[in-house]
Write a structure and sequence with these properties.
This protein is mainly alpha-helical. The protein contains 13 helices and no strands.
Length: 273
């Protein structure tokens, strides 16, 4: 039990570090779980990777608590706040529908290290290509989350549905999706953080409810510890990412994804995962 708890702590750290970075937290968790081999029950396989994202949701809410409280207090008179949360709802719908309809297929078929490796490498190449294109594009037209249109939100939401494939990255699809529709990098990143609240929170609640009758006592402890650790680490990662994007682009993440995906393919070839 103690060894498994230590493994859960490690997985929580992995989730917290990677959730808001454009590298796919779910993909990293799938590979890390395959390497560590914690003694999870069959019911917890796939559910753990989804549930501990709850910690990251709480981290976002806490980080933006002042903004969120202010928005709640002014939503009745501030059209910009209403526009923001309408955009969030619109962007959340595609991933929510696809995730609900194909939940079993995604968990049973796509939650595999090979899927993660391919997604990381393909995504890494796209990162580098897109960043070169962004370097020469016209000046972004949207520089505030309260100015995002429903059309921009719909495009972001459609692209974000691709992040249900492990290794693609929710953060990457929402940030790059926002930039492709005219948002500047800082605005796209902030919107991605806000969007995590309904997307990750909803996925956690739905998956937990559908798996509740199969989860044992030890499973509850693993889920709670994983969520707590991921939340603490994710809070620190948010601050770091906001500072990072103020100075540079995501090319480094693209290179990392290609290298990480290649390492995973080697591990698979050696039958280590």
């Amino acid at each position: 039990m103690l060894i498994d708890l230590l493994k859960v702590v490690v997985l929580g750290i992995v989730e917290g570090i990677t959730e808001f970075l454009p590298v796919s937290s779910t993909g990293h968790l799938i590979v890390a779980t395959a390497l560590l081999r914690p003694n999870f029950s069959e019911a917890l396989e796939g559910t753990f990777e989804i549930f501990i994202q709850l910690g990251a949701v709480i981290a976002v809410v806490f980080y933006y608590r002042r903004d969120l409280i202010q928005q709640v207090m002014t939503v009745h008179k501030d059209a910009g706040v209403r526009r923001l949360w309408l955009a969030i709802v619109i962007s959340a719908i595609p991933a929510a529908l696809v995730g609900f309809l194909f939940r079993d297929f995604i968990k049973d078929v796509l939650f595999r290290p090979l899927t993660v490796a391919i997604s990381l490498i393909v995504g890494g190449i796209l990162f580098i290509v897109l960043e070169r294109w962004f370097a020469n594009r016209p000046t972004p037209t949207t520089t505030a989350v309260t100015a995002i249109t429903w059309r921009q939100a719909a495009v972001i939401g459609g692209l974000q549905a691709l992040s249900l494939i492990p290794g693609v990255s929710r953060a990457a699809t929402s940030i790059f999706g926002g930039m492709l529709t005219g948002l500047d990098r800082q605005t796209a990143t902030r919107f991605s953080f806000y969007l995590a609240i309904p997307i990750l929170g909803g996925a956690t609640i739905v998956d937990l409810l559908l798996s509740l009758d199969e989860i044992s006592g030890n499973d509850v402890i693993f889920l709670a510890v994983g969520a707590l650790v991921s939340g603490l680490v994710a809070f620190l990662a948010i601050s770091w990412l906001l500072r990072f994007i103020a100075r540079r682009d995501f090319t480094a993440f693209g290179i990392y994804r290609i290298l990480a995906g290649s390492v995973i393919l080697i591990l698979i070839a050696l039958s280590l995962i």
